[in-house]
TrEMBL record:
UniProt keyword list: Cell membrane, Membrane, Phosphate transport, Transmembrane, Transmembrane helix, Transport
The ABC transmembrane type-1 domain, residue ranges: 83-295
Major subcellular site: membrane
Domain of life from the UniProt record: Bacteria
GO biological process: phosphate ion transport
Subcellular location: Cell membrane; Membrane
InterPro entries tied to this protein: MetI-like, MetI-like_sf, Phosphate_PstC
Transmembrane segments: 27-48, 79-107, 119-143, 163-182, 203-224, 275-295
Protein family according to the UniProt entry: Belongs to the binding-protein-dependent transport system permease family. CysTW subfamily.
Keyword Ion transport in annotation: no
Protein name: Phosphate transport system permease protein
UniProt-listed PANTHER family: PHOSPHATE TRANSPORT SYSTEM PERMEASE, PHOSPHATE TRANSPORT SYSTEM PERMEASE PROTEIN
Organism encoding this protein: Alkalibacter rhizosphaerae
The keyword Heme is assigned to this record: no
Length: 306
């Protein structure tokens, strides 16, 4: 009886008030959502359309070669040097960011007092707000000279310095998202482990981290995507040498740095070099999309439901 009265009251209120705004806003939200989808589709179509002109004019054997010299008299468009530069700087960044970010997340989640956590976490997240061009100059003018004292063979432009600084840049992403995943683990699981005599470290390593592994992996993959797409740091500190090498002390060029170099005016519109920008952009897009899909698959496979 009470339920019937409540439903009648709700219905009467909805009919009597007849809010125009309530009828208009869902349509507005739908248009905004469709605008985002349309923008994404437009970007993909632009990349595919212009990249197809590049792939139609350059043989696949040349594309997957190690020689990249788009401005020479006999231009060559091998993409492997760019893939290698991107992979090496990203690898260095992940090697820096994951251990430090995970350690920070474990400390904030398991060991820090609430008062200390309120201070440390915002300070850590300040790193995420620093403009990337500042990180680039930091890598070139501070980290590189410092490393040259330790590694005499290090070139002024190299892949090591920007990789380290990119790792510093994405530490907040790994730490903050991993800490959120750890805090989402039910308190009763921690209390059960403590009740069995476990220490804080044992609870962190044997209960909390395995239970939050899907969220932790998601944070790491997001950090990888962020590092792969980073532009200014590698443009300033890594240089534009189109070498295919595994030596991170040498100058390398990443995919994003190549796009920046050519969009600054080196490639005339309508040339093969111009369309190579879209081909590189398309490969970068596919690379990050595949990484994200793999992350989603792993997260679903390892997700713990409570």
């Amino acid at each position: 009886m009470n339920n019937v009265k409540v439903r009648e009251i709700i219905q009467n209120n909805a009919t009597r008030k007849n809010h125009r705004l309530d009828r208009v806003m869902p349509t507005f939200f739908l248009v905004m959502a469709l605008l985002s989808v349309a923008t994404t589709i437009g970007i993909v179509l632009t990349l595919v359309t212009d990249a197809s002109k590049f792939f139609a004019s350059v043989p696949l054997r040349e594309i997957f070669s190690t020689k990249l010299a788009p401005l020479s008299a006999q231009p060559s468009y091998g993409i492997l040097p760019l893939l290698m530069g991107t992979a090496m700087t990203t690898l260095v960044a992940i090697l820096v960011a994951v251990p430090i970010g995970m350690a920070a997340a474990v400390y904030l989640s398991q060991f820090a007092s609430p008062k200390l956590r309120k201070v440390l976490k915002p300070v850590l997240e300040v790193l995420a707000g620093i403009p990337t061009i500042v990180y680039g100059f930091f890598a070139y003018s501070f980290v590189t000279p410092l490393l040259m004292n330790l590694i005499p063979s290090l070139e002024p432009k190299n892949a090591l310095s920007p990789g380290i600084v990119m790792g510093i840049m994405i530490i907040p992403m790994v730490a903050s998202l991993s800490e959120d995943a750890m805090n989402a683990v039910p308190e009763i699981m921690r209390e059960g482990a403590y009740g069995l005599g476990s220490t804080k470290l044992e609870v962190a390593t044997k209960v909390v981290i395995p239970s939050a592994i899907s969220g932790i992996l998601a944070s790491i993959v997001l950090a990888v995507s962020r590092a792969v797409g980073e532009t200014m740091i590698v443009t300033i500190a890594s240089g534009s040498t189109k070498n295919f090498t595994f030596d991170i002390t040498k100058s390398m060029q990443t995919m994003t740095a190549y796009i920046v170099e050519f969009t600054s005016g080196d490639a005339a519109s309508g040339t093969t070099g111009y369309y190579s920008l879209y081909a590189v952009g398309l490969i970068l897009f596919l690379f990050t999309m595949v990484v994200n899909l793999i992350a989603q698959y792993i997260s679903k496979k390892l997700r713990e439901e409570y």
